[in-house]
Amino acid sequence: MTQHFFTGQNPNITTETKAFVTRYHGLFIDGQTMPAASGETFDVFEPSTGHWLTSIAAANSEDVNRAVQSSRNAFDTGPWPRMTPAERELILFRLADLIEQNKQLIAEIETLDMGKPVIEARDIDVMESASYCRYMAGWATKLDGRVTQLSAGPGNFGYTRKEPIGVVGAIIPWNFPFSMACWKVIAALAAGCTVVLKPSELASLTSLKLAELAIEAGVPTGVLNVITGDGQNAGAPLMAHPSINKASFTGSTAVGKMIGKAAMENLTRVTLELGGKSPMIVLGDADPASIAEELAAGIFFNAGQVCTAGSRLLVQEKIYEDVLLELTKVANNLVVGAGLDESTQMGPLASLAHKEKVESYINLGREEGARLITSNRDMDENGYYVSPTIFADCTDTMRIVTEEIFGPVLVASSFKDIDEVVSRVNNSSFGLAASIWSNDLKKVMDITPRIQAGIVWVNTHNPIDASLPFGGFKHSGIGRENGPEQIEAYLETKSVWINHADS
Ligand code: NAD
Question: Would you state the pLDDT for residue 4?
């Protein structure tokens, strides 16, 4: 039986990773690791093998109260919101350096926990998080209000102040656990807020590591608390807690709607980053062979577990079959395997339940009559692997086209002209992202403003930059992350009117 348990003997992990993964994992409150009040834990499994990896404390509402109280105290009376902006900025720069110095450790933990290729975890997730941290650190010193021109005349002076919103309750999913944790926490800290973070029960470990690094960087205790556990027992009480001032959620549209309703009960400010079914629109002037690899990355990066995944491909008729041919070659040759193997291009899915869900959509695609054009490969049955899958000749009413699958499954169809493709991509409840593939500038400039999506990429899909706002139209969410728009979401505006006229 022993070989069914994580032994830490994997030659591809460092001793630091082994030490971290095999140690006790509790809640992180007031700078201390502690068990849940109930003493309960939940199990975590390694996606590449299906073996047990570790157990983590399972929080309930009592633990949520403790964590929120700690963040409340840290905000109401602690040093963080009272520090100078320059002091906060410096601490966050230090945090960015620590993230970078720990990149291999964080990446290996992430790969063991949720399966993604370690190279992607390290060179994309962790390194981009360090850049993001530096970008947001810089905002700490630039949160200016403005002077207004009051019409009341001389003797009256008006200005605005930007003040931190308060205690933030933040919930993240499992697809980019470390990046999402950074996105939720660091902008809020730069604004002077304090945070209670609940990571997904499928990938909690790197959030716990982030909390430790924050302390090491000089973030005072209580400013960042992490509660681990599931949505119902830990997530829901956090979002409904009357002592949080801001609810910031990334996850599915279904859960996001519930959180939005709970937040309104207390008039808690809310940001929701939700699901998508993002189209990749290929115009007839594109060269199929030269874009095939990037299109494939648009859907198969992170095994399709990307909110902005280019999961819907629409190709202009005259190059439709050529694009499918080139894309299928790339998909059939992708190296699928364990994330710790550095030759792996696509890892397993994050959990057994999610693998089964994605497989059920592949079966549904066959039943709905879509044309399966990728080869059905033999996958290692122990891990949560799914073949890169492409369905051609899909119609817009198929469920595989309208619903978010969140796996390595692409649904493709052809279109005649621009009016048709614009109307078809907008006929979706989602509006997160889209990409246009063409060198015809006039057509690109015509289509871009007509697409109902928060992000439009041209000749690329999925890149992200800390400076460029990220978020969705319609059922893909409310609010933006990244850029000054994200910092703004953690601030309240206070208007000040001073009467300095002689009385
Ligand atoms: P999910 O909604 O099931 O879970 C997300 C988080 O919410 C987890 O931490 C979970 O424990 C928690 N949760 C679940 N039920 C809850 C409840 N009732 N109250 C409070 N919290 C609850 O989503 P998931 O499966 O973890 O992630 C995949 C989804 O996330 C996809 O829909 C994807 O598109 C979306 N996503 C969106 C973005 C974005 O920025 N727009 C980024 C990444 C993922």
Answer: 58
Given pLDDT bands bounded at 50, 70 and 90, which one contains residue 403?
very high
**What is the architecture of the domain spanning 15-34+52-274+480-492?**
3-Layer(aba) Sandwich (3.40)
Amino acid 132: pLDDT: 98
**Is there a contact between 393 and 324 (Cβ–Cβ < 8 Å)?**
no
- Clarify whether 273 is annotated catalytic: yes
CATH code, residues 279-471: 3.40.309.10
| Domain map (residue ranges) of the chain | 15-34+52-274+480-492, 279-471
Name the nearest CA neighbour of 413 among 427, 433, 431.
Answer: 427
Residues with CB under 6 A from ligand 1: 171-175, 198, 200-201, 230-232, 235-236, 239, 250-252, 255, 258-259, 273-276, 307, 404, 406, 432, 472, 477
- Confidence band of 5 (pLDDT split at 50, 70, 90): low
What is the rounded CA–CA span in Å between residue 294 and residue 444?
Answer: 18
Taking residues 382-401, report their average pLDDT.
97
Distances in Å between the alpha carbon of 51 and those of 6, 113, 260, 302?
6, 11, 36, 21
